[in-house]
Amino acid sequence: MENQQDVVTILTEIKGLLAQNKKTLNVEDLAQHTGLSKSKIYKLTQQKLIPMGNNPHIRQKFFDKDTIDARLLVNSDFA
């Protein structure tokens, strides 16, 4: 049983590492990446403080990881 838990832990860590390599993030990915809540992210997008792309066909917001990282380094409005 403990071995199964170890495998699950390792797979979770691998999943997190793979997510760090993504260039385009959705709201859930962005929340994990920044530590912000999804609610805060939606509020910031409404205030146009986070640059995003929007695909109206699937009603999902997308964010460029590099742009977000650059904004986090210089902009305190995210906090």
Automatic annotation (TrEMBL):
Organism domain of life: Bacteria
GO BP annotation list: regulation of DNA-templated transcription
Protein name: Excisionase
GO molecular function, one term: DNA binding
